[in-house]
User: Fold this.
Amino acid sequence: MAKELTSRSENYSQWYNDLVIKADLAEASAVRGCMVIKPYGYAIWEKIQGQLDRMFKETGHVNAYFPLFIPKSFFSKEAEHVEGFAKECAVVTHYRLRNDDQGKGLVVDENAKLEEELIIRPTSETIIWNTYKNWIQSYRDLPILINQWANVVRWEMRTRLFLRTTEFLWQEGHTAHATREEALEETLKMLQVYATFAEEYMALPVIKGVKTESEKFAGAIDTYTIETLMQDGKALQGGTSHFLGQNFARAFDVKFLNREGQLDLVWATSWGVTTRLIGALIMAHSDDNGLILPPKLAPIHVVIVPIHKNEEQLSQISAKAEVLKKELESKGLSVKYDGRDTHKPGWKFAEYELKGVPVRLAIGPRDLENNTVEVARRDTLEKMIVPADTVGTYIPELLANIQENIFRRASGFREKNTHRVNTWDEFREVAEVKGGFAYAHWDGTSETEAKIKEETKATIRCIPLDNEPEEGKCIYSGKPSKQRVLFAVAY
Amino acid sequence: MAKELTSRSENYSQWYNDLVIKADLAEASAVRGCMVIKPYGYAIWEKIQGQLDRMFKETGHVNAYFPLFIPKSFFSKEAEHVEGFAKECAVVTHYRLRNDDQGKGLVVDENAKLEEELIIRPTSETIIWNTYKNWIQSYRDLPILINQWANVVRWEMRTRLFLRTTEFLWQEGHTAHATREEALEETLKMLQVYATFAEEYMALPVIKGVKTESEKFAGAIDTYTIETLMQDGKALQGGTSHFLGQNFARAFDVKFLNREGQLDLVWATSWGVTTRLIGALIMAHSDDNGLILPPKLAPIHVVIVPIHKNEEQLSQISAKAEVLKKELESKGLSVKYDGRDTHKPGWKFAEYELKGVPVRLAIGPRDLENNTVEVARRDTLEKMIVPADTVGTYIPELLANIQENIFRRASGFREKNTHRVNTWDEFREVAEVKGGFAYAHWDGTSETEAKIKEETKATIRCIPLDNEPEEGKCIYSGKPSKQRVLFAVAY
Assistant:
């Protein structure tokens, strides 16, 4: 196989980079920290987008589009928000280039300096709440349930394809409500949408929880999160849903006449997931042969490869393949027939394993004779000989089975790598050697949280929503604690 | 009606602005020249996107995503390209803000100045061809047929909602080919995709043609265009498809080994349409009561309004409406039932006329008795009483009929406003008084073209592809001409 990957055990991080490049998902661009999402990677994003968009619309949301640029002054209005984002902002200062008189080529035209600098949106709360101000007068104008699909920019110093890039694609929901209860309900509803999407589509089990003060979104009252575990034992935050309280309404003076006829500040939420999900998808399921994609998000469900010795065989097999292709397509599946004679079957097998196509059908001369096909499933690499006439029912069932199996495997992995730890030594062993999730007691202070992070790199991923109260002692300070929280070293 | 529009005859330009605002399509944002696309306007864009995306994929294209930022140096590589775009570029010069020591608030951090400025993409040829360089070695790597859905920024001085905004949404196709013929074929194929989309979905007749030297895209060999006519007699360019020759391959040194084993420069095309299409849609069809949307692009096909005197009637009508709604939805239609008792039927009628919903059903007590509904079509404002049991077949036919009627009406309008002019006086009358398209002889020089523009504001929209050769004399210079070209004052 020409495109061999580094193995996970040898170097997990290198395996990931190799895989992203060799499976043609994305590559670094000429612009520092920005990636090019290649067609195969973008096709996965389209699948993610399509499904999430349906789920957003089913829960009553509509899409809209707000400007890329945010005036600098907007940024300063919410104190914590600006604190959180000011240090990683791309700033537009000029609106024209000109040819230099002294032959230095193209230079910024100093006569075209903006009076007020514009920030490329790192997130859109400020520009959106400045807009909502004009849309909301009375409780009759509420709720506003808007989502935006967009690009955003955060000037990251260390970037990695999909996981952390300067520009990335995402969706950001921004909702406005008349009451605290309603906003809180929305925050949790969208957290559940993300959890359902992660588990049912990405085949990725999640832990739902709330972030600590130091890990929450800049400007939020509370940040809710879905936390996932990757194969190297590190955690990855899959999506967040923020209860913003009245913070942005206060900053942008967005008041409404409530049912009691009194002026009140509007309640807000925001929630988002990004192209980072593709990174999670790769790292959670794939193996040393390449990608393993859950069928529900795979751009191609089935690839058909002919195995032939001569032209005549190829033309017979092609005819058969076309019939099967049509039949599977009529069931809503995406099917590719790779009849190229420039590449050998073995090369093609490796290629589609690398690309994570869930099911491969191979048809050779003996299959024609016996009216069979060879079916290979990507998740387990198992092969079966199946009567050709049953393919139309067999494959959809197999795909459902693969989807389920991938989820079960990821769940089993997470279970095996989730530890209840009671001492500092145990904790360090998980953080520094074993990897995985650690449920541990914590004294509830940001100081302790910071020290634990400093010493072990582990952070509190969340305080799980389904936590049972439990008396205990903080693994670091020994102070009393009322519940365990979820720690891990995270991406 | 609370939301009265300025009439078209009174002030067409004001009518357009009123309509965009009052139909809730878009509004100006706090950022100069940038708009907020509101949910109803964005829903039209989603319809446009959805259909075009299907057509692009049917013609073999795939989507991908390239960076928002373009290094300044890339820009200088194609001489005409930089000339065309340098004067309207948003430039990122810094990547951090900080709090000022002297209490001036948030300021640009001068320690975070970029070594090389980044341009916000006004179009992506340069960053894409710099990327293609690494993707193309041999003819086997060709063609590359990629499209991108993205936002772009061109620093316009005079902006108008949808028609011309600093940031806008678009798609940009960028293809790479082994031969001139193939690239030219692609250019024309995509022009035809745009023409088909405009005529069959937007109900907008187009003239296909090629731009003159002075009107073509900066960096293209030839720019092909679809030109449409608005109700005020001004032309609007609906989409362009560029044959780029080897210009960008030369600028970015993109060579490939051809079938003959020789190194050759790659051939290129690019093609795009933007959110401007929404402006065209509005201006081509709508009337003094509001929007008229072609059913194929309408976010809501049918609205059902109950007419009732009391609660009991309302509940009976609602039950009936729900049955009709389900039936129509089962035919793939988007149906809204507006049972709000906060607004009177008359108010609702005006509201949905304003928003261009193609069909309105009203159900009153008498309709319940007779098992009928009142059907109103938005395009002609005609009303009919229809047996409720036939709605499931009647409405889909009516929608097809409306789609056809709108196209026929726009075609009739264009025909009436297309003039073959032979003298300068006749030409001026069309350009300055009558409006519309003028087919006129032109001597083929950029000088004459510029002078005509200076004196009348009319420009050559295109040299139509279906032009018949015809001997004549230039309406301006009197010099000999071999064909008529299409003139108009344009948006």
User: Anything to note?
Assistant: The CA atoms of residues 460 and 487 of chain B lie 4 Å apart. Chain B has three domains: 12-63+127-285, 297-405, 418-489.
